[in-house]
Amino acid sequence: MIRAIAASTISVFYFSSSALASLPLAQAPAAPAPAQPAAPGGLEGLFSNPIYLFIPLIIVWFFLLSGGKRKEERKRKELLKQIKRGERVQTIGGIIGKVVETEDSKVLVKVDESSNTKIWFSRDAIFKVLGEEKAAETSDKK
User: Fold this and answer.
1) Which residues have C-beta within 8 Å of that of residue 125, sequence separation ≥ 6?
2) Checking CA distances to 11, which of 2, 25, 69, 95 falls within 20 to 30 Å?
3) Are 59 and 47 in contact, with CB atoms under 8 Å apart?
4) Domain spans of the chain?
5) Which conformational region is residue 15 in: left (phi greater than 0), alpha (psi within -120 to 50 degrees), or beta?
């Protein structure tokens, strides 16, 4: 009996909703589609999406970071150009010696005084110049 009441209630509800839909008063008139706003042009369109704001920021950040590196490379190249005879240098491998002879792309370094050992190094293999005064100090102490 409960099933019969439930079934009749559902069918009545279904009947009543379909009956209302067929009435002319129940239907709303079709509204025209809303007009699409015009896409902003020029700079307004460019700044409408926040992702476009990060692009110039990334470019500026890149140039700020690379500027220091370029300055260090210029300074190192100038240092390598000015290496002269008699200076103490350290190579990238950690070998310390005294410059005996220089050429355009390589340097002859004396690494051992007792056995008179000399090694040719590329100028790019020189890590830093320790200076002439340290070479003079060590020779004066002996």
Assistant:
1) 91, 92, 93
2) 25
3) no
4) 83-141
5) alpha
CB 83 within 8 A of CB 129: yes
pLDDT tens readout for residues 60-112? 888 888 878 888 888 888 888 888 899 999 999 999 999 999 998 899 999 98
- Is 135's pLDDT higher than 50? no
* Domain formed by 83-141, architecture: Roll (2.30)
83 SS3 class: coil
The whole-model pTM stands at 0.48
Give CB contacts under 8 A, 24+ apart, made by 28-36: none
* 51 burial level (CB within 10 Å; 0-12, 13-18, 19+): exposed
The CA-based angle 15-21-25, given to 5 degrees, is: 130
Helix (H) or strand (E) holding 80: helix 51-81
Please state the φ and ψ torsions of residue 9, each to the nearest 5 degrees: -65, -40
Cβ atoms 87, 132 nearer than 8 A: yes
Question: From CA 2, how far away is CA 25, in angstroms rounded?
Answer: 35
